[in-house]
Amino acid sequence: MTNLTPIQTEYRNIVFRSRLEAKWAVFFDEMGIEWKYEPGTFMVPFGGYSIQYRPDFALTNVKCVFDIEQPIYIEVKGRDHYCDIYEYERRKIENFAKDHSILVLGKIPYKVSDMFQEPDYICNFILINGQNMPCFFRKYNDVPWLVDGYRLKDGSQKVDSALYIANKACFSDMVEDCRGAEWTKN
After folding, report:
1. Distance CA 165, CA 99 (A)
2. Please, are residues 41 and 52 in contact by the beta-carbon 8 Å criterion?
3. Which helix (H) or strand (E) holds 1?
4. Read out DSSP for 104-124?
5. For labelling, which of 40, 48, 77, 161 has a CA lying 20 to 30 Å from the CA of 153?
6. pTM (predicted TM-score)
7. Intra-chain end-to-end CA distance of the chain, in Å
8. Strand, coil or helix: 98
9. Distance in angstroms (rounded) separating the CA atoms of residues 136 and 118
10. Gyration radius of the chain's alpha carbons
11. pLDDT digits (tens, 9 = 90+) for 96-149
């Protein structure tokens, strides 16, 4: 496991704690998903005590094939697999998930099919009432949905386009990195 140092990044006049969070915000925008960054602090039971937990995002306009209430919270981790997240962080997320719906997102895949190469790839992992469910975002009639893996595999061109744009996003502190960036799809 690599030790990652987050780079604060500004997008839409919001300073994100990491570039990965900013890229997920770009993805949400491309998908038409309404989001709020660091929506609040929650007290979460943890080993007989309560600790503070602040999810990275709250999504409010996503329809869902699961029987859950809005908002859907998002936790962004710069890891490929759920087991790569430090145990303390996993337990905090899992305790939060007993009362809330939270989707754990890792590195942004380049296309939806990349998420199905490995069964525990973090990008399609949600905790609903403490239960694990593989899922991701999809668009139906221009409405963003959170769907299970079965409904996700086919017809994901709009999602692939949003993933591509998020992966290629350049921010003000990346001017040198983006000079030769190719902005057209092959």
Report:
1. 33
2. yes
3. none
4. EE-SPPSSGGGGGSSTTBGGG
5. 77
6. 0.83
7. 33
8. coil
9. 15
10. 16
11. 888 888 888 888 888 877 766 655 554 445 665 555 666 777 777 778 887 776
